[in-house]
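Can't paste images in this forum, so I'm doing it all in text. The chain is below; anyone willing to post the predicted structure tokens underneath?
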Amino acid sequence: MTAAPLKPAAPLSLLGLTPPEITSLMAELGEPAFRAKQVIDWTFAKRAVSIEAMSNLSKGLRQTLTEKFVTRTMTIATVTGSKDTTRKFLLKLHDGRFVETVLIPANPALYGEASDRHTLCVSSQVGCAYDCKFCASGLAGFTRNLTTSEIVEQIVQVEAYSGERMDNLVFMGMGEPLSNYSNVIKAIEILNAEWGIGIGARHMTVSTSGLAPQIKRLADFPLQIRLAISLHGASDEVRNKIMPVNEKYNLDELFEALAYWRSKRKQHITFEYILIKDVNDGLDQAHRLAKRAKGLDAKVNLIPYNTVEGLPWVRPSEPHQDEFRDVLLNAGVKATLRREKGHDIAAACGQLRLRQETELGIIESPIPEKRITINAGA
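Text version of the structure:
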């Protein structure tokens, strides 16, 4: 029997280390304490692309660090732009797999003001295990969690390429962030820190499909990050059809966890709700959604379905989208309808990565015939 080939070990990246860890490393190497500050400055403030570029370190220390560490573990494979300047970055990882990161320009209609801020949609896993029926990220299943440094490096790579500072992060890319809790939390600490990337905690949003225990755990995390829930159904009957996670944590359990979150924090929860024709866009769902949102003083972000090759769903007509939104507004719920940017660049999460890995033969084409029959007649 032939043994399976060993996967290449993830290189150790300085982008995933905190000051105490770097200080400890320098002490182990017999270096003076000030060396740690130099390494931190080169890694985060100066964004050194290699350890060799850290010119005020001794040659011997640079050589020693190079034997065990790197400052970059991924490369930009593809950048896809759109008419509205949304850009999708396909990043190649050290093991040959891919993740996506999407740069979204400010939308005054959404934010209520003219703004030049740049939002980056960040991935937390390669693939996804949660099998939401409308999403491309999980079509080929789950491969692995991203490391802390791989999460941080997405921001570093996009800033270097674009020449623009990212000032708003949303963990809404590939994967379920709360299923990779420890790496995501450590990455958030590095991204927030003044010595790190320096993005305000209130400008970071973690989106989850509804892992109730982890939501409670996140509520006790000290940084004032924001929370978004991929809801997509206002009753268990509808949500069960398209989000298998609901069978483990139903709406009652989810909303009990959200009530705990609200008891700990002032920030409003956001419900992300993808509108899918004849699946979850009935006005009965709009009225249920309004009631649930009002109970938590939550905001609702309506997103017309973004076409994914191989999946049967379609977006409702624009008049019906407006009608669904107006039910919420008339009930006193703060709601936005985001006819999303990037519809012409395969902007649905995981779509570009899926296409690339299929073309390279990394995975077989996962045409999801089982999904086409799940909601037949819905």
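The two ends are 47 Å apart (CA to CA). The chain has two domains: 12-70, 75-374.
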